[in-house]
């Protein structure tokens, strides 16, 4: 597991840095945020184009990002028991639902990965 820093290019040239735990192994990706609390760190599911919220105890914010770094689709406050997919996604970003800023379709992100330790 590692950490990803995403630089989000917002409208009017503004930039924002977001930090995610990277989940790249199949079982890590399958589990995602399952079994965590609503204050869990956001996760980046590498090589993942579909996610589920089966068994979740809280709602999620989800974004699908393509290889170019373009945000392809965004879902806010997804309830438990759902399945979402985007066949063009290279990475899927998840976080416990929060009010306020999240990613928006069409924004560009640049991801920098580093290993823990």
**Through-space gap between termini:** 10 Å
Provide the CATH top-level class. Answer: Mainly Beta
Please state how the strands of the largest beta sheet are arranged side by side.
Answer: 6-5-8-3-2-1-9
What oligomeric state is this? single chain
Encode the helix/strand succession as letters.
EEHEEEEEEE
Count of extended strands: 9
CATH superfamily heading: Protein of unknown function DUF192
Which residues form runs of ≥5 with pLDDT under 50?
Answer: none
- Main beta sheet: strand number and arrangement? 7 strands, mixed
The rough form would be described as globular
What does this entry look like structurally?
By secondary structure, the protein is mainly beta. It has one domain (2-115): Protein of unknown function DUF192 (Jelly Rolls), CATH 2.60.120. Helices cover 5% and strands 47% of the residues. It is built from 1 helix and 9 strands. It has one helix at residues 26-31, and strands spanning 2-9, 15-23, 43-46, 50-52, 60-65, 71-78, 83-85, 91-96, 108-115. A 7-stranded mixed sheet has the order 6-5-8-3-2-1-9. A two-stranded antiparallel ribbon has the order 4-7. The longest helix is centred in the N-terminal third of the chain and has 6 residues, at 26-31. The mean pLDDT is 90.
Furnish the topology, listing elements before pairings:
Elements: E1 2-9, E2 15-23, H1 26-31, E3 43-46, E4 50-52, E5 60-65, E6 71-78, E7 83-85, E8 91-96, E9 108-115
Parallel strand pairs: 2-3
Antiparallel strand pairs: 1-2, 1-9, 3-8, 4-7, 5-6, 5-8
